[in-house]
Design brief:
Rossmann fold, alpha/beta, 361 residues, 4-stranded parallel beta sheet, 2 domains
Length: 361
């Protein structure tokens, strides 16, 4: 296979941890791949993609990285942090997807402020909250609004800083690009090399499609016989499975290897979407509490909490045996615990606040 440019941003290999009490409860061996411990910021799956993406940017002599995402995007924060670490500037476009969003620093937005990247807010709440629009139409219209805002801002930004188009590198699709997903092809290779455990399933998150696409391709190349399943964290655009297949095809072209993935290999679970992207719900919060109390590991309510929740529900439905081994990829995203809406959710339900009030009155 061809070798692509890659920079060393992270601490690897990340540990594989057996969840002892959870395994006992579910009757099989459940492991967690701790990609929240990758060593940049609070870790997270996006860092593996960024090792390839930023190396490609450096190869093209870029000086400015442009990224985008939701208001609390972990991808955007880690892109800005990694760009800063490697001496590049970052312009981050954040989509405001809910009307009445509280204007305060919390979660990843607070970290963006510490990093000091250039931030531009793009209001698409009217699009995302329109009940008449399908998921596909919302995606298309919000992308058009984002593209327009990027074009307008970057024209001014490049003029102010005396940059040309050649100085700017655009990170598309939250890093779910043919270059970016190589990070999770590598991750599966890393897993195969660090343990002798044979996994029946490996679960990863499925949002933009890159982590799952890379994991699926990686299992075919390095862990044949293991089933790769993606757990959806939001309502899925119907075109997403084909997007993932096309992405994998382009990646294998880059790598110079045959494409071992077919349509029949796509397995995406929608059993943990619940109320929608980044909206707290009782089921996900219960899983976060359980994993923290049983295993000493924090999950976040946007990605990893839903991934583990969906994986555990699937494991329970499949009635796995005690000698079956399952691996779940912890995608990081820990700052999501501290999003303002998550904090409000817990405040409204916490006995700690009641105790505080009682003990000080």
């Amino acid at each position: 296979m061809h070798t692509l440019a890659k920079m060393n941003l992270t601490l690897k290999p990340t540990p594989i941890q057996r969840l002892n009490r959870i395994s006992e409860e579910y009757g099989c061996n459940i492991f967690l791949k701790r990609d929240d411990l990758l060593g940049v910021g609070f870790g997270g799956n996006k860092l593996r993609k960024l090792e390839y993406i930023l190396a490609d940017a450096q190869k093209k002599k870029a000086k400015v990285i442009v990224a985008s995402g939701s208001l609390q995007t972990n991808h955007g924060m880690l892109t800005a942090l990694s760009a800063s670490k490697t001496g590049m500037q970052c312009v981050l476009f954040l989509l405001i997807e809910e009307s009445g969003e509280e204007q305060c620093l919390s979660g990843n937005l607070l970290l963006d402020d510490y990093i000091g990247c250039e931030i531009v807010f793009v209001d698409v709440a009217d699009i995302m909250e329109d009940p008449e629009l399908t998921v596909s139409e919302k995606d298309r219209r919000s992308q058009e609004a984002l593209d327009e805002a990027v074009g307008r801002k970057m024209t001014v930004y490049m003029k102010e800083h005396q940059y040309t188009e050649k100085d700017v590198y655009y990170v598309r699709s939250a890093g779910s690009t043919p270059v970016g997903i190589c990070g999770y092809v590598d991750c599966v290779k890393e897993i195969a090399e660090q343990t002798q455990v044979k996994f029946k399933y490996i679960f990863s998150g499925n949002g933009s499609g890159g982590t799952y696409g890379g994991t699926l391709l990686g299992t075919k190349l390095y862990m044949p016989g293991t089933i790769a399943a993606g757990v959806g964290i939001e309502e899925m655009n119907p075109s997403k499975p084909q997007f993932i297949l096309d992405l994998i095809a382009k990646t294998t072209d880059l790598l110079g290897c045959p494409n071992p993935v077919g349509k029949e290999d796509i397995r995406i679970l929608q059993n943990s979407v619940n109320l929608g992207y980044a909206i707290p719900d009782e089921e996900t919060m219960h899983v976060i509490e359980t994993i923290a109390r049983y295993e000493g590991v924090f999950l976040d309510p946007v990605y990893s909490g839903k991934i583990v929740n969906g994986a555990l529900k699937y494991i329970k439905d499949q009635k796995l045996h005690q000698d079956d081994n399952v691996l779940i990829v912890h995608s990081g995203g820990t700052p999501g615990i501290f999003n303002s809406n998550m904090v409000r959710y817990r405040n409204d339900r916490s006995q700690i606040i009641d105790r505080w009030k009682n003990d000080t009155n």
